[in-house]
Amino acid sequence: MATEDFRTYDVIVIGAGPVGENVADRTAAAGLSTVIVESELVGGECSYWACEPSKALLRPVLLRADAVHIPGIDPAVRNPLDAKAVLAHRDRMSADWKDDGQVEWLESVGVELLRGHGRLAGEREVSVETPDGETVRLRARHAVALCTGSRAALPTVPGIEDVRPWTSREATAAVAAPRRLAVVGAGVVGIEMATAWQSLGSHVTLLAREAGLLPRMEPFAGELVTERLREAGADVRFGVSVTAVRRVPAGQSDEVRVTLSDGGEVVADEILFATGRAPRSADIGLETVGLGPGEWVATDDSLTVTAVPGDWLYAVGDVNGRALFTHQGKYQARIAGAVIGARSRGERPSSGRWTPHSATADGAAVPGVVFTDPEIATVGLTAAMAESAGRDVEVVDYELGDLAGAQQYRPGYRGRARVVIDRDREVVVGATFVGPGVSELLYSATVAIAGEVPVERLWHAVPAFPTISEVWLRLLEARRDA
Predict the structure, then answer these.
(1) pLDDT for the residue numbered 3
(2) C-alpha to C-alpha distance for 180 and 170, rounded to whole angstroms
(3) Which one of 230, 254, 274 terminates a domain?
(4) How far does Cα 461 stand from its chain's mean position?
(5) Which residue range(s) make up the domain with 455?
(6) Which end of the chain has less neighbouring CB within 10 Å, N or C?
(7) Rounded CA gap, 21 and 41, in Å?
(8) What keywords sit in the KW lines (predicted)?
(9) How many domains does the chain have?
(10) Same domain (yes/no): 171, 213
(11) 402 occurs within a structural domain
């Protein structure tokens, strides 16, 4: 009987986005032979259809929003953006959807690339269907890491299959601004793309079934963004959902008719559904190791899959559902790589919070930026989250526009800062900043929370004047004087 041919490696990584690349980098650096399997472009969603192209679309929008308020700058900045030039910049930032540079980087760190669709095929085994129809069998001595990410989740709406809906991929890769764009969803993708395309010449109608934008953040964040979107000309509607969609045939007008729950109708040229994410786990062989296909793959803080015995299977990044941010997935990747390296040497990974082998920040200090006008920067818990968890917290607010540094940044600056302080431990557990340029405040807040810096110690972290970072001093003063 013929023996099936396997290619054997120490580590197999399925998915070559930023998360998979970082796992492979860490295991290769630990001296482990590593192969990474990818069915699309090396670099993944973030490089070509999410983080990079979306920020390339938004950066000119935010820069112009600041410039129009600054005395002495040419009034021409008030003119509409050159959409063609912005889209060309987006193309450059997305490497024109070519992954040559990413492939070269993998080679430089000693990671082998196998193009094709990878599926688990039992314990420590992976089957890869290559683009030319061959099947390659892989076996791992130590670990298999699932780094397949997430995808846009489309709702069940009558007619949706026929309207050629945009998801985040189409919204970031479109070759021209539609005259009218309907955006469905109150989350980050929806409001970022509404901000970008409204500024690039589309008339945007933003439809949210919730009572406000960004319902998982502090309420003032969504309120300030709503205000600016409406000032920019967008039609923002709350408390409505889409009950049906249909596209009029191209021979007529080729427009999308959107029926709403309140009986109204919106007419658009394109419709973007930004209604959440789902794991890319439906066709990666989870059933061969006793897991349910299409589900989030649960892990412990070492990123080891909890439902599979033997400490060989890892789920890293979006696919585990812990924190759906590229930077957080890369953080997990560094930890998973360290855990795999330790176990390969027969060592027991360190346990407990804030160790090299524990993704503690996933539950305590997850940072995020929403690149709208105004920007939103958040890390840790909101006041509502902390209170629902039974924490005794104190909430301190400050108007960012009262800072000299903010007025230097933009005359008429509007924004707000909030910190959530755990009274029992006297440490900051959450922070939210909303206003132009606040993304630069985020790392200091993340350090304060992850480092569990006592509030009394923060008095000795002196902010430079006049900068927006002076808000830290003003928040401490507001608390002292309350």
Answers:
(1) 45
(2) 15
(3) 274
(4) 30
(5) 374-481
(6) N
(7) 12
(8) FAD, Flavoprotein, NAD
(9) 3
(10) yes
(11) yes
108 assigned to some structural domain: yes
Q: Which amino acid is at 406?
A: A
Rg (CA), the chain: 24
| Residue 304, C-beta contacts closer than 8 angstroms, at least 6 positions apart | 311, 313, 314, 339
Tokens 């080891």 sit on residue: 304
Do residues 325 and 333 touch, judged by C-beta distance below 8 A? no
Residue with tokens 């928040």: 475
Q: For the sheet containing 270-273, what is the strand order?
A: 235-238, 203-208, 180-184, 270-273
Could you please report the per-residue DSSP string of 262-309?
TS-EEEESEEEE---EEES-TTS-GGGGT--TTS---B-TT-BBTTST
Burial profile 305-327: b = 16 or more Cβ within 10 angstroms, e = fewer:
beebeeebbbbbbbbbbbbbbbe
Q: What is the DSSP letter of 454?
A: B
Strand, helix or coil for residue 113: strand
Quick one: 11 and 107 in the same domain?
yes
Give residue-wise pLDDT tens across range 427-440. 999 999 999 999 99
DSSP 8-class letter at 14: E
Residues 224 and 321 in one domain: no
Asked if residue 219 and residue 270 are part of one domain, the reply reads: yes
Q: How far apart are CA 315 and CA 362, in angstroms?
A: 14
pLDDT of amino acid 2: 39
Q: Look at residue 65 and tell me if it is in a domain.
A: no
Burial environment of residue 273 by CB neighbours within 10 A (0 to 12, 13 to 18, 19 or more): buried
d(CA 226, CA 323): 25
Q: How many C-beta atoms lie closer than 10 Å to residue 430's C-beta?
A: 26
Nearest to residue 236, comparing CAs of 260, 220, 212? 212
Which of 224, 257, 274 is a domain's end point? 274
Question: Residue 266: which region, alpha, beta or left (left: phi > 0; alpha: psi -120 to 50)?
Answer: beta
Q: Give me the residues of the chain with pLDDT under 70, please.
A: 1-4, 250-252
Please, are residues 181 and 219 in contact by the beta-carbon 8 Å criterion?
A: no
88-118 per-position pLDDT tens digit: 999 999 999 999 999 999 999 999 999 999 9
DSSP string, 149-202: -EEE-----TTGGGS--B-HHHHHH-SS--SEEEEE-SSHHHHHHHHHHHHTTP
Residues 172 and 216 in one domain: yes
128 and 202 share one domain: no
pTM above 0.90, yes or no: yes
**Which CATH number is 168's domain given?**
3.50.50.60
Q: Specify the CATH number for the domain of residue 477.
A: 3.30.390.30
Q: Are 177 and 254 in a shared domain?
A: yes
465 in the same domain as 411:
yes
For residue 328, tell me if it sits in a domain: yes
